Amino acid sequence: HKEYPPCAEQAHYCYNPTGTYLERTTTVGTYAPNTWGLFDMHGNVREWCNDWSSSSLPGGSVVDPQGSAIGGQRVLRGGCWDCSAMECRSAYRVDLPPDGRSSAVGFRVVLAQVSPKQ
């Protein structure tokens, strides 16, 4: 029920009372997977990252950018069930202390398929 602007006076999101708002997380696999076969990457729960929060990131084209090696807050990405539309994307970052808890925060276990050595 929170969509992208432009709209009236809001700059961060537009409220759409006719939109679907479940008011909770959903079962994994409720929505179609992305190109890499990962389900529910945006909008279910924010996901913990291994990176420590940093006030600056490397610029330009970077593959697997790494945050600071030390810090007090870990990075969360991907938006959540109660986030605005602008926050439901992989580039949107927020941070939380490692012991922080929220109904809008989770983690993802990914198993990478490894080819046997030939």
Structure description:
The chain has 118 residues and is mostly beta strands. Helices cover 0% and strands 18% of the residues. A four-stranded mixed beta sheet has the order 5-4-3-6, with no helix packed on it. A two-stranded antiparallel sheet has the order 1-2. The radius of gyration is 17 Å and the shape is globular. The protein starts with a strand and ends in a 12-residue tail after the last strand. The model has no long low-confidence stretch (mean pLDDT 80).
List the keywords.
two-stranded antiparallel sheet; 118 residues; 6 strands; single chain; globular; mainly beta; 4-stranded mixed beta sheet
Percent helix, as a range, is: under 10%
Order of helices and strands: EEEEEE
Physical arrangement of strands within the biggest beta sheet: 5-4-3-6
Structural class: mainly beta
Gist?
The protein has 118 residues and is mostly beta strands.
List the helices and strands and how they pair.
Blueprint lengths: L1 E2 L10 E2 L30 E7 L21 E4 L15 E4 L8 E2 L12
